[in-house]
Design brief:
Length: 109
């Protein structure tokens, strides 16, 4: 077995994974998740890179207590973050597929 050929193959695989990961990160910036709380009274749109793009509050909710509004906003954002995390994990798994990485290792990229 030629160690130099093995090293070249490993470097080639690493470059391929890095290119796939960069493409996946760019894709995540363009993908959106949508979450809501309070039966749609508060809606959040977030990218796969955790950037909040839109926050919508139903005008009828503004007549309620501020604590309720804050809780619903927090719930909607937390749901959007959960969805964005799932999207990230699925996208990175696809980008590193075939590399034999254990589950959860995509977070290193």
């Amino acid at each position: 077995m030629n160690i130099q050929a093995l090293m070249q193959q490993a470097q080639s695989m690493q470059k391929k994974v890095e290119a796939n990961v960069e493409t996946a990160k760019k894709d995540l910036a363009n993908k959106e998740v949508h979450a809501e709380a309070g039966s749609g009274l508060v809606k959040v749109t977030m990218t796969g890179r955790h950037v909040v793009k839109r926050l919508t509050i139903d005008p009828s909710l503004l007549e309620d207590e501020p604590d309720m509004i804050e809780d619903l906003i927090a719930a909607a954002i937390n749901d959007a973050v959960r969805q964005a995390d799932e999207l990230y994990e699925a996208t990175m798994t696809g980008a590193t597929q075939g590399m034999g990485l254990p589950p959860g290792m995509q977070g290193l990229f």
